[in-house]
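Aim 2 progress. For ABC transporter permease subunit, the working sequence is reproduced below.
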Amino acid sequence: MFDNLFSLAPEIGHAIAETGLMLLISVSAAVLIGIPIGVFLYFTGSGQIYERPALFRITNYVVNTIRSLPFIILLVALIPITRTIVGTTIGPVAATVPLSIVSIAYLSRLVEQSLREIPKGIIEAALGMGATPLQITWKVVLAEARSGILSGITITTISLLSYTAMAGIVGGGGIGDLAIRFGYYRFQTDVMIFTVILLIVFVHIIQFTGNTLVKRLDKR
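Predicted structure tokens for this construct:
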């Protein structure tokens, strides 16, 4: 039943590498940009120490808009921007543009929710001791919510894995592209089953790794 897999071994290895590349770039973008945006949303929200209603509403609206769009629509809508940034709309590098944008919006919201679980008394105590905004951010807020943030990164990574498969529909490369080109167009059922199993295995590995790290960081 799985005879086609042996002949496609190089293609499978290449597809896995492309998926890994897409995840690496998009998750990195989410961590570097999404976390600061989540912190910004938290501090400028209603009742917070740096409340800025106008800035919060604008940022909140942009994040909600991106998160509300189905990824396949966002993928197509961002084609002009993707072409401008990377010079092409095909391949794993091109797919990282919409993947990074959606991952930033997704993680920023999860980070904001994690920070809202921090008791306000902790922040007020830090202010009372004369802590600066930077100290409050790094040594209080992010330190208290680090396990929740890591859990958010894990959830974001798993969601992005499914999005990378979806990107294969429009030539984004990766495991999804392999499933479409061989499993669907050529009716190679064994390839389709293998790609599904592969994605499931990756999800379990990511979830297990994330859960393990969260337990180590969780001080409760």
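The chain has a mean pLDDT of 85. This observation will guide construct design in the next reporting period.
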